[in-house]
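User: Good morning. I'm curious how fe (ii) ion would be positioned relative to this chain. Could you predict the structure with it bound?
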Amino acid sequence: MLGGMAHPIPRPTEGDVVELILTDHRLFEDLLHELRDVTSDRREVVSVISALLVAHGEAEESKVYVSLERKNAIDEHEVEHGEREHDEGYQALLALLEADDVTSEAFSSAIHEFSETLLHHIDEEERDILNAARTDVSAAGRAELGASWLAERNRLLDAGCGSPDDIRRLVREAQRRPS
Ligand SMILES: [Fe+2]
Ligand SMILES: [Fe+2]
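Assistant: Good morning! Here's the predicted structure, ligand included:
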């Protein structure tokens, strides 16, 4: 068990933004393993994933992507691509949040869809965005970004982000955005 009241999501306050994001990516992978396990409390796992997905991704968009684009480490296409993949993650997550039977074949397929979507994004982000932070941003810059990303991530977690309504709102906002 990794989340919930008894297992809160870690909330560090400083570090290198690349290392911090990688640590969350490993946590997502652990949560996916737990979600695939039919004997785990899948509803609980889904709610932990929802909170972390929103806090992690929204803080990347508002603090990390923007800053890397300003430093010319990544371009606007990479930013838009990353944001679109976050939106695809919320869409795939919605099927998990709205399911009434978490032991069904349909739920199992929805886990597969979500897992593919999330792992695809993690791979691309680590190669296309985090590499740019590694090579084009100084250690001091990465520490500054780490602190600002964490402050926003932790603020969102503390505010209780990732409720089903929150995910539905993010999906609606994505649908209104020109593609
Ligand atoms: Fe990420
Ligand atoms: Fe991301």
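Residues 21, 25, 56, 60, 125 surround fe (ii) ion (ligand 1) (CB under 6 Å). Residues 1-6 have pLDDT under 50 and may be disordered.
Let me know if you'd like a different ligand tried.
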